[in-house]
Design goal:
5 strands; alpha/beta; globular; 5-stranded mixed sheet; 9 helices; Beta-carbonic Anhydrase, Chain A
C-alpha cells in the first residue's frame, strides 16, 4: 500500500472533491479486484481492535499497511479508555464478544494535541472534562514527569504514560476480564506512533491476563 502524496495545503479539499474521490476509489478498487466490494459486503472478521487518537494524521490501516476489514477502529481525543464512556465500552464489547478480536491495541502518538492541552493551565471549554483524565495520568506520574526539564521530552513521556495507563484501564474492564475468565484468546497492547518518522514504538506492556492488576480491580 503506497502512501499518497501529502499536501500541507488542504484548500483543494471540498465537499465536491470528496465525492469525486469516492468515485475514483471505486474505480481503482474494481480495477485491482472486480470482486472487491462483494467480498467486503460478506462481513468482517477483524482480529484487531484499535483504540487510537482522532488525529487525522494517524490512520490505523495506512500506518499498519492493512486493508479494510482487518482492523476494527475506535478513535477519540488522546486515545482514552474511560470507564464511563459508553461509546468506547460499546465498541469494546462488540469487538470482544461478537467479533472475537484477538488483540486490542491502544495507540497514542507523539505531538498529541490532547496531551499538550492537558499539560497546560488553560481553559478550553467542554473538552476540559475529557482532559481531566489525562491530567490524572500526569498526577500519577508527577515525580517522573516533573524531573524532565525539556518540555517536548516531558510531553512525549506523558504520551507514553497515557498509553500505558489506558492499557491498564482496558484490563480493568469487565468485558476484557470476562473474556480472559472464559479462556478467550485476547491480548492487550500499547503503542506510540511517531508522525515525524512513521515508526510505531511498542511500549512493552502487552498482557493476556489480569495478573498485573491490583486485587481491588480483579473480578472473581
Amino acid at each position: 500500500m503506497c502512501a499518497k502524496k501529502l499536501l500541507h495545503d488542504t484548500s483543494h479539499i471540498t465537499y465536491e472533491s470528496l465525492l469525486e474521490g469516492n468515485e475514483q476509489f471505486i474505480a481503482d478498487a474494481l480495477a485491482e479486484d472486480p470482486e472487491y466490494f462483494k467480498k467486503l459486503a460478506n462481513g468482517q472478521t477483524p482480529p484487531v481492535l484499535w483504540i487510537g487518537c482522532a488525529d487525522s494524521r494517524v490512520p490505523a490501516n495506512q500506518i499498519t499497511n492493512t486493508s479494510p476489514g482487518e482492523i476494527f477502529v475506535h478513535r477519540n481525543i488522546a486515545n482514552m479508555v474511560v470507564h464511563s464512556d459508553m461509546n468506547m465500552l460499546s465498541v469494546l464489547d462488540y469487538a470482544v464478544n461478537v467479533l472475537k478480536v484477538k488483540h486490542v491495541i491502544v495507540t497514542g502518538h507523539y505531538g498529541c494535541g490532547g496531551v499538550i492541552a492537558a499539560m497546560s493551565n488553560h481553559e478550553f471549554g467542554l473538552i476540559d472534562n475529557w482532559l481531566r483524565h489525562i491530567k490524572d495520568v500526569y498526577r500519577l506520574h508527577a515525580v517522573e514527569l516533573d524531573a524532565i526539564e525539556n518540555e517536548q521530552e516531558r510531553t512525549n513521556r506523558l504520551v507514553e504514560l497515557n498509553v500505558i495507563e489506558n492499557v491498564y484501564n482496558l484490563c480493568k474492564t469487565s468485558i476484557v476480564q470476562n473474556a480472559w475468565k472464559q479462556g478467550q484468546p485476547l491480548a492487550v497492547h500499547g503503542w506510540v506512533y511517531s508522525i515525524s518518522t512513521g515508526k510505531i514504538k511498542d511500549m512493552k506492556v502487552s498482557t493476556s491476563d489480569n495478573a498485573n492488576l491490583g486485587d481491588v480491580f480483579k473480578f472473581e
